[in-house]
Amino acid sequence: MAEFQVDADGTRVFELEARPGSSDFLPGVQTPTWGYNGDFLGPTLRAERGQRIAIAVTNSLDEVTTVHWHGMHLPAAMDGGPHQVIAPGDTWRPTWEINQPAATLWYHPHPHGRTEEHVYRGLAGMFYVDDPSEAPALPNRYGVDDIPVVVQDKEFTDAGELTMGERQAEPGVLGSTVMTNGVIGAYFEVSTEMIRLRLLNGSTARTYDFGFEDNRNFDLVATDGGLLAEPYSTTRIRLSPAERAEIIVTLTPGDIAMLRSYPPELGDVASSFAFGGEDTFDVLQLRANDYLRPSSAVPAILHNHVRLQEADATVHREFTMAARMINGAQMDMNRIDEVVIEGTTEIWEIRSTDRLTHNFHIHDVQFYVLSIDGVAPPTELAGRKDTIYVEPGRRYRLIMQFGKYVDPEAAYMYHCHLLRHEDEGLMGQFVVVGTNDPQPSSLSGLNHQH
Ligand code: C2O
Ligand code: CU
Question: Which residue lies with its CA nearest to atom 3 of ligand 1?
Fold first, then answer.
């Protein structure tokens, strides 16, 4: 967990330094890696709704990077997308007020064309948002019964270096080694009857389907943007890159429970095995002590969702992903693809006509899935989401309400979160403007640095 200072005005001030390092993933081998404030990955940042935070991000790499706060509702100039570049040696100082429900968010680099490599080398961390005004009785002691679980796949050379394989590979790196929080063969000693795992698919390309070796049920309590309305008891949860899920697992004294990833259902892709659709991995072994401290039962009601109504949506947009393009265009740093009026409720309809794995992530907002091929979404997709797996050929209708951070000169991104796809152009940009503002079609001015 990251340390912080508190300013005179109450602002929580964090410091992050992106830097090269080296990690001992494999016995007797030092692997060059990148990390925030350390050799690999970064500390968990944590703040409460209503708090102002400020982060000093120093770039000690020898190339430009950025840091994006994935899932956060905040002004576009603070978002850390490809325009907010941090030159080597520089420090970037975003600040904003946390203004959204409790959720498991994360942060990672977003330099245009280089995101896959920056994340793959190790730059990523969790960002927990707490909301004291609605805190159902769930396990919440960090590192005791509330555990971050960052799952990533890696490929090593014989010399123990991380390799990204062929640049042309589709869909990106599918490593043969899975690590959890930077540890191969990770385990955790459980001291309580229930444990909350905050799962993050921190991979650049691989989709997982998490579940336990003995097929035990667990309670899914939260997805990307926060708590579900009520717990959902299930045995599997599929997560594509950047998606999160919070699950509550119940153990008995002396229990051993292996969290694995099972072959994920990827939909109508051309060849499932080529996208990891036949792979199984051990992810995290839970080893329960002989005495477990009692945990309170998972509450029946978790969150009161104020659902957005389809009838309130005044704007409909369609986004079709095909051949590294969205609606026939590749990412252009200068072009504004969509202009959103502040406060508007919109429906975005997403589909992919490639028989490949893609997902879709929208900055700044959390959305609800209205329907998939006209049918209401399954329970695990019924909560607040910022990223969704997009099965080839299906139609995903998403509803969202945009906020009030108006800035015609700073763009938010939407893109496939398979990072090689994103780097190769599967991304677009939108700005949020005021009701009577002109609608810009290109970026100019202060925030534009390319
Ligand atoms: Cu996780 Cu555009 O980012
Ligand atoms: Cu993609």
Answer: 70
How remote is the CA of residue 119 from the centroid of ligand 1, in Å?
A: 11
In whole angstroms, give the CA distance from residue 184 to residue 435.
51
pLDDT per residue over 403-421, tens digit each? Answer: 999 999 999 999 999 999 9
In the predicted structure, residue 445 carries a pLDDT above the cut 60: no
Nearest-ligand number for the alpha carbon of 110: 1
Range of the domain at 381: 310-449
- Tens of pLDDT along 425-439? 999 999 999 999 999
Tally of domains in the chain: 3
Given a cut of 90, is residue 231 above it in pLDDT?
A: yes
Query: Ligand 1 site: residues with CB under 6 angstroms?
Result: 68, 70, 108, 110, 242, 361, 363, 413, 415, 417
Q: Parallel, antiparallel, or unpaired: how do β-strands 103-108 and 31-36 relate? A: unpaired
Q: What atom of ligand 1 comes closest to residue 108's alpha carbon? A: 1
> Strand pairing partners for 398?
348, 369
In order of 355, 360, 421, 425, the CA distances from 328 in angstroms are 16, 16, 14, 11
Ligand 1 atom 1: residue of nearest CA: 70
Query: Any idea what the CATH number is for the domain that residue 187 is in?
Result: 2.60.40.420
pTM of the model: 0.97
- For residue 201, list its beta bridge partners: 151
